[in-house]
């Protein structure tokens, strides 16, 4: 049983509170991603699960076992590090078999496990090489293979792709995803890259200043962020966030000091004069005529394209605006037009608390 449960976990280093009353439930076989900016506590939390850091308060369970006071070697976990952590004097086979040899497992059992995992990872031809003879991607696969042969209850990944170039990151990311489908072991994965989190995680835990900001599926976090922070942290290109005020009788939204007025979308009940933020994803903006009612006047500042995706960067009375599309843009720098947000996709946040206001 490899479910992971953290209950009210807190950790301080001296006077600094790094992890603050964190509770997380990770189901058996689930791939859970911990994400947040630098200093949010995600790597510390992973080390706490691994038993490499003690906690000041709370409980940690792996399966049905309370492992709070157990050392790392007693927790039945395997960890894949950012730096690979391979023994330079050992061959690939020796690195992968090291933990099994320490446990004095039979030689034939070790050989069979190593051969099976090497085939799974495409390492068969590399088993007699030293780490210095391998590429970065091959070294990371060896580090994963060393973890897999141990057959642990939980895999822990600490930013394993951050040392790889962009193309290799995409490749190894896919390999980890396929491995999880095949093996089904509970996995906890730390990254600062929200694209990695969105494409790999079945569950994502967003951390901020040592606390859980929100937990959910990738699309939950993208479509229904609980806060301004989560809305801005998840998604690329970034969400457009506009300051506004609710108008008289709670039926309109006033932007740019009242010079732009648009109707409050259906389903919202917000009192007059409340200060809010409007969040709109770049793909939920439509271009209309500059004089269209409720449209935001905008002018093209720059156009960025990756070939398959186009982002138009605009200047408007409410600041910089981003529009994204799968279609090639015919706009040119300096072109003027109006922007109309999709009312069904508009997110509204209270400006004081920065929490999302729900419809209804």
TrEMBL record:
Topological type in the membrane: Peripheral membrane protein
One GO MF term: ATP binding
Entry-linked SUPFAM superfamilies: MOP-like, P-loop containing nucleoside triphosphate hydrolases
Compartment(s) of residence: Cell inner membrane
Location, primary (coarse class): membrane
Keywords for this protein: ATP-binding, Cell inner membrane, Cell membrane, Membrane, Nucleotide-binding, Sugar transport, Transport
Protein family (similarity comment): Belongs to the ABC transporter superfamily.
NCBIfam families given in the database record: PRK11650.1 (NF008653)
Entry-linked PANTHER family: BLL2173 PROTEIN (PTHR43875:SF10), MALTODEXTRIN IMPORT ATP-BINDING PROTEIN MSMX (PTHR43875)
Protein's recorded name: Multiple sugar transport system ATP-binding protein
């Amino acid at each position: 049983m490899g479910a992971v449960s953290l209950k009210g976990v807190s950790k301080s280093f001296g006077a600094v509170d790094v992890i603050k009353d964190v509770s997380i439930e990770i189901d058996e076989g689930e791939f859970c991603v911990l994400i947040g900016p630098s200093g949010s506590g995600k790597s510390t939390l992973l080390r706490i699960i691994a038993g490499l850091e003690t906690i000041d308060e709370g409980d940690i369970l792996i399966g049905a076992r309370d492992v709070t006071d157990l050392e790392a070697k007693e927790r039945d976990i395997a960890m894949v590090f950012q730096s690979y952590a391979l023994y330079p004097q050992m061959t690939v086979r020796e690195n992968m078999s090291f933990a099994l040899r320490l446990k004095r497992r039979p030689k034939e059992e070790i050989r069979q496990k190593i051969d099976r995992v090497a085939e799974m990872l495409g390492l068969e031809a590399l088993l007699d090489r030293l780490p210095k003879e391998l590429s970065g991607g091959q070294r990371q696969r060896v580090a994963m293979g060393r973890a897999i042969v141990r057959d642990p209850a939980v895999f822990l990944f600490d930013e394993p792709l951050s040392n790889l170039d962009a193309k290799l990151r995409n490749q190894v990311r896919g390999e980890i995803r396929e491995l999880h489908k095949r093996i089904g072991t509970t996995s906890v994965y730390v990254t600062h890259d929200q694209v990695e989190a969105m494409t790999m995680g079945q569950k994502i835990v967003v951390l901020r200043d040592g606390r859980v900001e929100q937990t959910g599926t990738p699309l939950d976090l993208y479509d229904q962020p609980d806060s301004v922070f989560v809305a801005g942290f998840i998604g690329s290109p970034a969400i457009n966030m506009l300051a506004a005020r609710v108008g008289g009788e709670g039926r309109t939204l006033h932007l740019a000091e009242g010079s732009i007025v648009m109707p409050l979308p259906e389903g919202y009940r917000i009192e007059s004069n409340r200060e809010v933020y409007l969040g709109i994803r770049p793909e939920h903006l439509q271009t209309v005529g500059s004089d269209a009612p409720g449209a935001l006047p905008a002018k093209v500042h720059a156009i960025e394209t990756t070939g398959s995706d186009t982002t138009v960067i605009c200047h408007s009375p409410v600041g910089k605006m981003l529009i994204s599309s799968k279609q090639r843009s015919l706009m040119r720098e300096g072109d003027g037009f109006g922007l109309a947000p999709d009312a069904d996709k508009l997110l509204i946040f209270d400006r004081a608390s920065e929490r999302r206001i729900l419809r209804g």
